[in-house]
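Same chain as my last thread, 339 residues:
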Amino acid sequence: MANKNLKVALVGAGAIGGVTAAKMTRAGWAVQIVSNRPEAVALAQNPGFHLFGVGGETHIPVRVVKSAVALDGPLDVAFVATKAAEASAAAESLLPLLKPDAALVSLQNGICEEALAEVVGPERVVGCVVGWGATFHGPGRMEVTSEGEFVVGRLDGSTDVRLEAVRDMLNAVAPTRISNNILGELYSKLIVNSCINSLGVIAGVPLGQLLAVKKIREVFIAIMTEAVAVADAMGLTVPPGGGGKLDYHHFLAQTGWPGNLRRHLMIRLIGFKYRRIRSSSLQSLERGRKTEVDFLNGYICRQGRRYQVPTPVNDAVVEMIHEIEAGTRPISMSNLTTL
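reply #2:
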């Protein structure tokens, strides 16, 4: 039986963090939320966080504090649901409050687990793939946009009672399974996000408009090709992405013009299905925050250098997005022609 007396904290009351914390609270877990948004603190108890979209509409009263120093510790489990660039700082703020055997769970896009391990120790870090979607509509207002699952696991593939406790908590939000290949699971999602999220930042248009252009689809394929080559060099077993529908090796292995035609048709279908979706990193940039490119394409580049696998397209994507962040390059579809 789940022990709901555990002390739990979650940093970051954005789309994923807000929905996760609210649903866990509703299920009886005593979750303390850290948010630097005064509006979120004000709305926390009355009327509570407003969740709507897939699964219906509800208000859930939650506990929100302004900073980690206000948390009631020591903590058994802590979730980091900030943007990837802010994850290490969030972990540092939690470090004095963590029990020696605490679990720190990463809910980011990209692969932040190694950076978090440098802060709190690898024995505490739990990787997590978020396989469902949500949109942030302002402090305390989150729309659940798609169903899906959580996948959790430790980087060394081991299982212990802490991992089972994390699974029990997250089951209150979405079906959760434990994997002994969490790095492969994370990398699978990273490949898709490195194609869609990053190209959306560079071009500044919704996914449907982005993937309707043949040249952009070619860049999409090139990013994926480099990512898979790096995974192979790392010895990773990468499960199919896109909800289990996209086997990367099979997708890339089809030869000749029939294979190339099938690749382009599949990408067009992805673009049509999600045609109104705008890159979450683009939305972050528009709010004056950094993108997650260093933990998406940047991760592919770092591992490529480590394992001596060339990643010229991903290198160019990272450089271009850094220029956009610095204000030295405009967001434009024309950027993609130079890739």
